[in-house]
Design a protein that fits this description.
Helix content is 30%, strand content 18%. By secondary structure, the protein is of the alpha/beta class. The protein has one domain: Aldolase class I (TIM Barrel, Alpha-Beta Barrel), CATH 3.20.20. A 12-stranded mixed beta sheet has the order 9-10-11-8-7-6-5-4-3-12-13-14. A two-stranded antiparallel ribbon has the order 1-2. α1 (47-59) runs parallel beside α2 (78-85) and α3 runs parallel beside α5 (139-152). It binds S-adenosylmethionine (SAM) and iron/sulfur cluster. The site of S-adenosylmethionine has 19 residues, from β5 and α11.
């Protein structure tokens, strides 16, 4: 029988998010500063080491893996990683969060490797606003990427949007209509207080309760009972194929059912997005190249220190956790 990871609060952990790189071709204002210093190659797990970690987790009952970053598709050799983890039988699902910039050339490879659902971040349909938000992104390239993904025929494509006051807040209906038009789902993520204070988040952060009220003015919504073990509530839009997700990480409602842990590209195992509680896996991997037992034991033991809930607070002057999202992975 396969082992299962159960934490001190009796929550089953069967989902890992793995950040495969801290690098990215965009510099989204809520995620990175304009000038970023990225990690050196040796400070980051190799693709073989990432594959090994995922395999070990799968032997411990993990069923779902999401690759994220940074931008996962800019990591050299990423195709090989998808192809090899696609062969791990114990995994039910491999997914990806991407900014879409490389999808035109990567969509088919992802589908062929067994990826069935992908999340694509899209904050604006206006090329100028898109540039302002991402600093370096090219909207047309991303839209081409989205259409390449649609063509390839993934089971589900979900757009992820962070709405910000005075920037893209007014595009709520445009973005939802775009999702409806192309049979996509769309989730609105409340901005999280991660990373350095790049700008005044309290003045830009849009509350999901306000988004819900606005959505109800235009669309007929019904709440679904979809539960991902994460901080999302899903609504279906009547007479469409589209579901709208509202991801509210500031709410504590979801911590009770939390089913996930995160692994950074440096091999840190973070047990909660909102806490610094972590285990360093890299030394265990590198000191024991042919023996997975120390790694397994550390992962099993980490369940005893997974925090009960996060402690985000937008009203804090300093972010609750000084860690870039691109480091931990979204
Ligand atoms: N580069 C990929 C992308 O943008 O989809 C994957 C990594 S990115 C860190 C994953 C998700 O985190 C994106 O949807 C992004 O919008 C979101 N994100 C980044 N920083 C955030 C923040 N401070 N608050 C809320 N969401 C954030
Ligand atoms: Fe890059 Fe994604 Fe962060 Fe934007 S949100 S800077 S695309 S990692």
């Amino acid at each position: 029988m396969t082992m299962q990871l159960i934490d001190q609060f009796n929550r089953k952990v069967d989902y890992i998010r793995v950040s495969v790189t801290d690098r990215c071709d965009f510099r989204c204002v809520y995620c990175m500063s304009e000038k970023m210093t990225f990690l050196s190659k040796s400070a980051v797990l190799s693709l073989e080491e990432i594959e090994r970690v995922i395999k070990v987790f799968s032997e411990l009952g993990i069923k779902k893996v999401r690759l994220t970053g940074g931008e996962p598709l800019v990591r050299k050799g990423i195709d090989k990683l998808f192809q090899s983890i696609g062969k791990i039988k114990a995994l039910d699902e491999i997914t990806l969060t991407t900014n879409g910039s490389q999808l035109q050339s990567k969509a088919q490879m992802l589908k062929d490797s067994g990826v069935e659902r992908i999340n694509i971040s899209l904050d604006s349909l206006n090329p100028f606003t898109f540039k302002k938000l991402t600093r370096t992104g090219d909207l047309n390239k991303v839209l081409d990427g989205i259409h390449a993904a649609i063509k390839v025929g993934f089971k589900k494509i979900k757009l992820n949007t962070v709405l910000m006051k005075k920037l893209n807040e007014e595009e709520l209906y445009d973005l939802v209509d775009y999702a409806i038009k192309y049979y996509l789902d769309i989730s609105f993520i409340e901005e999280m207080p991660l990373g350095e204070t790049i700008y005044d988040r309290q003045s830009t952060s849009v509350n999901n309760n306000d988004i819900l009220l606005k959505l109800k003015e235009k669309y007929s919504l019904s709440k679904t009972d979809i539960s991902t073990g994460g901080p999302a509530a899903y609504f279906s839009i009547k007479n469409t194929q589209t579901k709208v997700g509202l991801i509210s990480p500031h709410s504590h409602n979801f911590c009770e059912n939390c089913n996930r842990v995160r692994i950074t590209c440096k091999g840190e195992l973070f047990l909660c997005l909102g806490h610094d509680t972590k285990i360093e896996l890299m030394p265990l991997i590198r000191l024991n190249p042919n023996n997975d037992e120390p790694l397994k034991e550390a992962i099993i033991n980490s369940m005893a220190i997974k925090p009960k809930s996060h402690n985000f607070n937008l009203a804090d002057e300093q972010p609750s956790v000084v860690r870039f999202m691109s480091h931990t992975g979204g």
